[in-house]
Amino acid sequence: MSVLDMLQFEKREMMPEEYKGKSVEQLEQRVKEIKEKFGKKLFIPGHHYQKNEVIQFADVTGDSLQLAQVAAANKDAQYIVFCGVHFMAETAEMLTSENQKVILPDMRAGCSMADMANLSQTETAWEKLEKLFGDTIVPLTYVNSTAEIKAFVGKYGGATVTSSNAKKMLQWAFSKKERILFLPDQHLGRNTAYDLGIPLEKMAIWDPIGNELQYEGAIDDVVVILWKGHCSVHEKFTVKNVEHIRKTEPDMKIIVHPECTREVVELSDKAGSTKYIIETIEKATPGSKWAIGTEMNLVNRLMEQHPDKKIVSLNPYMCPCLTMNRIDLPHLVWALESIEKGEPINQITVDQDITEYALLALNRMLQNV
What we know:
The chain has a six-stranded mixed sheet with strand order 7-6-8-11-9-10, sandwiched between helices. A four-stranded parallel sheet has the order 13-12-14-15, covered by helices on one side. Strand 4, helix 5 and strand 5 form a beta-alpha-beta unit. It has three domains: 3-111 and 323-351, NadA-like (Rossmann fold), CATH 3.40.50; 114-231, Rossmann fold; 234-313, Rossmann fold, CATH 3.40.50.10800. Helix 4 runs parallel beside helix 5 and helix 7 (147-155) crosses helix 15. Helix content is 43%, strand content 15%. It has helices at residues 3-12, 24-38, 52-55, 64-73, 86-95, 119-133, 147-155, 166-176, 186-195, 239-248, 262-267, 274-283, 296-305, 329-340, 352-367; strands at 42-43, 45-47, 60-62, 79-81, 101-103, 137-142, 159-161, 179-183, 203-207, 212-214, 224-227, 253-256, 270-271, 289-293, 310-313. It contains 15 helices and 15 strands. The longest helix has 16 residues, at 352-367. By secondary structure, it is α/β, with parallel strands linked by helices.
């Protein structure tokens, strides 16, 4: 969902002021009452980056695709109140059945990375890249993308990837054709390709704003084309942050998400998906020290859950993901009470033709990992 779309929706559907005036105790009590009333008919998935005030009521926590899959497997739920961001709710809607309704508590909960690649830009890029490279490219998209981009990738023979399975999916794509267009996060694409042994000199960047390929070498040497997009949270972890930890805490391990820049990943001790980071901390020995380069809500939660370890954010001035934080307790209660009244708000719907092609991309991934 673009910023313009969110602003237009905001004019049509705003949370009533009354919810802002309710106490935490009142709001929490309403969630408990409605959950008890609806039982298995109501399902609340919560992304790892959500606030504690929301995550405490989640029936399951996880990353975006994991939550969508769990929602799809839950045939009892009539209402799925997805506590995450828009593209995650879209994926859940596409994977669930027609009689299930997916609700996003606040439609302003978007993703800046997903918004960095829209369908018009991608179609323009594909046309120009095919003129340059012919029929030699497979498109891949990170699941952190809109349904339209997933559909585009599915239509042209590609697949989705997660940060957990990106290596496998790049290997799959290279078994199909000799080049890859990787959307929309350049850093995950670069880090994954580099780990597979592809030198940086064989990676080009597609700039969707300038509508141009950024590359200084011989064009035939290009193997990976990286969309010029990024996560606004993970790009804020810097080499200086790493150097500071190395200087002040030389025995502290640094673990980061592969949405961080190549330079930060290279200087860190470990890099991996959100699930990988969580599992690494869980398995770490008591007394171990960790600087984590990922979203602040999750880092804070890991601190609380593992008091036997010293855990800090790699960037001490990091803020939580602003769009993830749109989902708060008042919006959750608003969404739940709308369901209780029989007038659900913020229902996520995806056109059937988009769903058809997007599911092709998702299923290609699920069949190959």
